[in-house]
Amino acid sequence: MKNFYLETNTLKDPKGEMTAKVAAFLTSHGCRVVPTYEDADCILVLGGDGTVLRTAGKSFGSGVPLLGINLGHLGYLAQIEASSWEEDLLKVIEGHYDIEERMMLSAVTGGRKMHALNDVVISRNGPLRTIRYGVYVGEQFVHTFHADGIILSTPTGSTAYNLSAGGPICTPGSSMIVLTPICPQTLNIRSIVFGGSEVIRIEIGFSQGSDDPGATASFDGRGDILLHGGDVIEVHKSSKTTKLVRISDLSFLETLHRKMEDLK
Predict the structure, then answer these.
(1) Which of 80, 174, 180, 204 could form a disulfide with 88 if both were Cys (CB 3.0 to 4.6 A apart)?
(2) How many angstroms separate the CA atoms of 153 and 220, rounded?
C-alpha cells in the first residue's frame, strides 16, 4: 500500500499533532497522503472504534480497506495501538497484512435506505415507557416485544451495544443477524440469532396514549430516522462489506480475552 487517506477524529487529536506525525512518517517511507479516499489504497483512521464506524459509513461501497490507529480506550476495530503505530504501519507499507471482509446491514424504511457495520438500533423516542415491536422474518411472525428498544447486530457489532444489553458474542467472520431486546418487560426473553440470508421486519406498535412519540432508528449511532406507530423497518444483510486491514497475529478470541482483561 502506497496511497493513504487520513481520517482523523479531531476530538482525539485536537491539535492534529498525531495526524501530522503519521503523514510525515508515510511520506518519509515513499507513500502519498491523498486528498480523497477514492484515490487511496487504504483509509487510515485515527481515533477509536466510533471513528472507524463513521468512516465505514462515509466510504460505504468504495471497497477501500480501513485501518484504525486507536486513540481511544477500548478498540476492537482499530488494529494499531498508539504505542506501536510506527512499527505496525511499517508492516502495512511493506505488504505484511491481510484483508478481512466484515458483513454489513442494510435497512429500508419510508423509502430511505441506510447501512451499518455494527448495528441498527430502534429505541423509544420521548417519554420513559416501553414500545411494542412486532418482529417478522420474511412473512413469518416471530414475536411482539414490549421493550425500550431492539438491537439488530452484525457479528462485528456483537461486542458493542448488543453485548451490553446481554446479547451473545459472535465471531466476526460469521454471517448472522442478532436480535436483542433492550430492557424487555419479561424475564424469559433472550436474544435470537438469525441466519445472514434472513430479512427481518420490525413493525412499530401504536402508542396507548393520545400522543405518538414513536421511536427512532439509528445506524452505527448516526442518521436517526423517526418512526411512528404502524411504520415498518426492514433489515437484511448488505450486498456490500467493510474491508479491514489486519496486521495482528492474534485471533479474535485472544483479542477478546485481552480486551475483557483491560476492563477489569
Answers:
(1) 80
(2) 10
| CB distance 242 to 101 below 8 Å | yes
Say how far apart CA 117 and CA 69 lie, in whole Å: 18
- As a whole number of Å, the end-to-end CA separation of the chain is 37
C-alpha cell at 129: 415507557
Catalytic residue (one of 13, 39, 41, 49) = 49
Report the distance separating Cα 51 and Cα 55, nearest Å: 6
Q: How far apart are CA 232 and CA 247, in angstroms?
A: 41
Name the more confident of 76 and 179. 179
Q: Residues 230-242: what's their mean pLDDT? A: 96
Distance CA 263, CA 257 (A): 10
Among the listed ranges 142-156, 174-188, 197-211, 235-249, which one has the minimum average pLDDT value?
197-211
Q: What is the pTM of this model?
A: 0.89
